[in-house]
Amino acid sequence: MAAQPLPFPEDGELAASQGLRTLESGDDAAPAATAPLNRLLAVNEELKALAALDWAAHVDANAKEAVQGLEQIFRSATAIQVSVLGAAETSGKWALDGQRNFDSWVSSQTGTTRGTAGRAVKLSKTLQDDLPATRKALAEGSISSDHAQIIARRCTKTDKHRKRLADPRQGEQFLIDHAKQMDAGKFSKVAHAWAIESDPKAAERQWRQESAKEEFTLAPVEDGFHLAGWLNPVNGALLQEALSSHMGRKAADDLRPINERRAEGLISLAAQSLDSGVKMPSARIRPHLTVTMEYDTIERLVHASGPLAPQSDRTCDGTEPFDEGLWAQQWRPGDDHVISTTLDYSKLEGTAPATLPDGTPIPHGVLAKIACDSMLTRVVFGAESTVLDAGREERIFPANQVRAIIARDRTCRYPGCDAGPGFGEIHHSLSWAKHNGTTHVDLGILLCYFHHGLVHERDIAITRKRGEWVFTTRHGKTIHPPGHRPPEEGDPVSILSAPGSDSESRSETARHREDLADPGQLSSVPVQKQNSQWEQPGFYSSGPPPF
Fold first, then answer.
1. How confident is residue 492, by pLDDT bands cut at 50, 70 and 90?
2. Total domains in the fold of the chain
3. Is 436 part of any domain?
4. Is the same domain home to 157 and 62?
5. How far, in Å, CA of 369 to CA of 305, rounded?
6. For the segment 321-339, what is each residue's pLDDT rounded down to a tens digit?
């Protein structure tokens, strides 16, 4: 929301509250110091006279010029507000009125709410301390107050943001040049992408904080149900995509407003989910949400992903450094390995973020989560966004491997969770792509929607150890099912022994080992391998949206 220009009190009110008055010949104050104030008050009187006119008789054929003129006045007033508030706070005289802080003083002088006054004060501080070029552009009227608010709010949060603002090519002037060319809605996405590129770790942290506020309420009232809530941009776009598909194309005789059609789409979505029964991940129709990125983005995301080898394998004897590429080549199905969600954000600085269909950028950690269980499509663009080539969609885990993982895991493998496969996704490590790794079923694990997001948000590592999944926090602490005793030393198999674990199915697997040689047979561990193609972007998980 843009900071609103502070309303001017009537002359008498101004004199009573601030002890100021229009300068006359007998005043003792220095004319040079009060001349700008007198001019400002004179402009205010002229504006009030203009406000009293009946503009319906004057605009008519000149509506465009009138609206543009008012916008320029608003921009100038906001620029003056920035300067006046900065000077007033610096002088310190506001404290003589007994207010606790400057925000309260501004609110008392203008009659605005504390929130409105606070936003105006914050914009004033940010433009004067960190954004001199933005302040100048606002004063010249070349950008709107909304543009200035977006730059101040999104691009000055961290030291890395402020440092990059000084960059002559990709800094503050870069943002201003883009702001001049587009409306505030489109520019908000540009500024957001710039902030993610400048400090990806901070963007991830902010995303997690905002996502923690997600909520959805379905409350019965006297005549029906009331729906309310808030979702982050990714989940909101996912729900919007699902609702749009159920709304379909509007018929020529359909006179209902969009809100009524959307309500019907929601009901249709819920009914279809219930009528179809529990959906297996391999039976879902994808995509539900398209995420677009540059090839360099997914490539750098892969190289920023965490380690593959367990800590015991990465411990060197001091003679030569550990070679993860060699380790990956020597890895065989059944060997221990790690599915890590850790990202080295220093390798992602300056990387363009992936975007949702409407252009909204998303943090790199969210892209890593989406890429786990997705379809990948390569698209090559030429000049003027001409599509030169489009490859086939390729699933990271083919359908037969997804079925095998479900047959092995049965439920979400997070300690203590028994959510069925119809509410789950296949989680794996992106790091295998660094070494042209395979998509063997040993490298994937079934997690429910919630716990899949949780392991990415909290950097939880999942280690395949002696045929069992061991979950550890970023601090190395093992996560156990609620109410279960910690395993004894040397007894990792007891960590996860719920139905579907390898400890339960190992004897059955041994009995049918000969059957596994036939890739056409559905088994706990198929032998077929597929190479994943890390090219153009993936898709979000499908199935019932998480509301």
1. very low
2. 2
3. yes
4. yes
5. 12
6. 777 878 887 888 888 888 8
